[in-house]
Amino acid sequence: MTKRQGRLFFIICTFLTAAAFIGMTIHSHSRFAELTNEDKLTPAVISGKDIWHKNNCINCHTLLGEGGYYAPDLTKITQQRGTPYLTAFLKDPSQFYSEEKHRRLMPNPNLGDTEISDVIAFLDWVSHIDNQGWPPRPIIVSGTTIPGTDVGQPATQASVSSDPVAQGEALFRSSPPACNACHSVVPGTNLAGPTLAGLVTRATAIIASPEYKGEAKTPAEYIRESITHPSAYLVPGAMYSANNQSFMPDNFITDLEPGQIDSLVAYLETLK
């Protein structure tokens, strides 16, 4: 290749690279409104963003994989926890976690009811951004150092056998619904939700107790009811419910397919 050919090759490659970069930039900017749900930017969302920055939440938490990496990634937190739980948590984090037991404790942000509502609105807006699967392995609120919560690389239902129990266990550990973000399967290890160890035995006792007002007659029916109507029976404990409403999200009845619920029930029935 002569010097003239080399120079021409360099100019053409530079032009093509610049054109590709400019084209991708224009394409990205043209889709910002669609990808970020710009039409959902309500005053509450904007106020919540301002509160988020004012309190320097990003110093510990991450959103879309960006932040302090000291505390959990909150990109999908509203889908993992739900509004009732987040509201109670932001009012007083010390009710949910012990500094001695969990080795860290979120300081109380001392927010008013409206501020809490706005922060949750902001986080919910973030959770619906089309982030193209980023971060690829988000930090979920489960604490992988706690027994019974280590998820590693989440399995997918397509990667396991057709056995309902195996399908249910894969779904339990996948996100969504990320059941293991709130529930451990180890005795005595309670996270945002109670441990599911010994679930069948406990369900049998609950159904037989006079405090139970639900419609389940068997442990399997109780497990299904707990997934689809979590407030039918409130597990004792201030960190699990408030105002007669369970902190467990109540959207699984619509967000999960009937077959997925069947698989979850089949797996959870093995936790005798």
UniProtKB/TrEMBL annotation:
Keyword Lyase listed: no
Coiled coil, from the record: none
GO molecular function: electron transfer activity; heme binding; metal ion binding
The UniProt record lists the keyword Membrane: no
Domain of life: Bacteria
Ranges where the Cytochrome c domain occurs: 43-127, 163-272
Protein name stated in the entry: Nitric oxide reductase subunit C
UniProt source species: Nitrosospira briensis
